[in-house]
Structure to design on (298 residues):
């Protein structure tokens, strides 16, 4: 999933990911599935088919960070040196991401753990995705996995998923439950990527897949709460209350550490009027956990 609408712009040094991805409960045409292990979780085949149809209708352009603003944009600022509250090198704003991104030498692994939030749904449709990944912040390639809340007519549905672009579209794998303990990771060995979501509360909802990408650039690592983009733009953000990312780890080609071990950016999700939709906290003293608080849907 990728970044802010082009109309808001992005600093010249960073390209704007523009992907047209179709979300599906099964693999995209031509996608390899021989090495994907999964079950269909708790929902009946009819319920899964209905959810698939709804997600496909909404998410014809599930992308990474469409665009963002840093200290060249509105309400962006460098954090003060030695701040105990914010470890981020830079504060940035996005219309669909909230959380943290690391930049540095090519990354090889990223991971994090969370308790799947409970969605509070209105009468309309909305989405909230939680994930870790490599790429998407400063590149067109993305290698990501995590969970998603889909609100449909007041009823929340929960799934896990993975994406590796440009070789695959988004793949939804299993249904999950709110309150489950989820650990998500992406690891790279050369041009092979292993994407794993482990549901330690309901192990049968876990999956792992290994995919290949020769054009992925590995330039960033992320821990994100997202409002995915559909064919008409960023979808309303489901009310998830508070999302807490913990035990966040990351490695590049020279070292391993936590979020604050690398040059990191704190990302606040805003709407087109610069109202905050999802607000990240500062990093913990250990630099390996933070919270994102839902503020509004759109």
């Amino acid at each position: 999933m990728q970044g802010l609408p082009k109309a808001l712009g992005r600093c010249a040094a960073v390209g704007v990911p523009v992907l047209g991805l179709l979300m599906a409960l099964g693999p995209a045409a031509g996608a390899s599935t021989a090495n994907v292990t999964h079950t269909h979780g708790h929902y009946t085949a009819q319920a899964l088919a209905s959810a698939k149809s709804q997600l496909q209708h909404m998410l014809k352009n599930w992308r990474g960070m469409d665009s963002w603003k840093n200290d060249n944009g509105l309400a962006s600022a460098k954090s003060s040196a030695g701040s105990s509250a914010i470890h981020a090198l830079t504060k940035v704003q996005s219309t669909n991401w909230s959380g943290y991104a690391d930049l540095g030498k090519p990354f090889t692994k990223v991971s994090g753990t969370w308790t799947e939030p409970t969605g509070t749904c209105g009468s309309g449709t909305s989405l909230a995705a939680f994930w870790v990944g490599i790429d998407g912040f400063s590149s067109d390639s993305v290698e990501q996995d995590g969970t998603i809340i889909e609100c449909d007519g007041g009823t929340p549905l929960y799934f896990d998923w993975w994406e590796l672009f440009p070789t695959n579209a988004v793949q939804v794998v299993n249904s999950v439950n709110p309150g489950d303990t989820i650990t998500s990771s992406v690891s790279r060995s050369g041009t092979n990527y292993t994407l794993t979501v482990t549901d330690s509360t309901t192990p049968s909802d876990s999956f792992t897949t290994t995919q290949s990408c020769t054009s992925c650039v590995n330039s960033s690592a992320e821990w994100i709460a997202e409002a995915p983009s559909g064919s008409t733009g960023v979808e309303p953000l489901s009310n998830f209350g508070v999302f807490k990312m913990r035990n966040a780890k990351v490695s590049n080609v020279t070292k391993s550490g936590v979020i604050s071990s690398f040059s990191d950016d704190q990302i606040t999700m805003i709407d087109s009027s610069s109202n905050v939709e999802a607000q990240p906290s500062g990093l913990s003293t250990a630099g390996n956990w933070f919270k994102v608080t839902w503020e509004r849907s759109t």
The radius of gyration is 17 Å. The chain has one domain: 2-27+37-294. The chain has one helix and 21 strands.
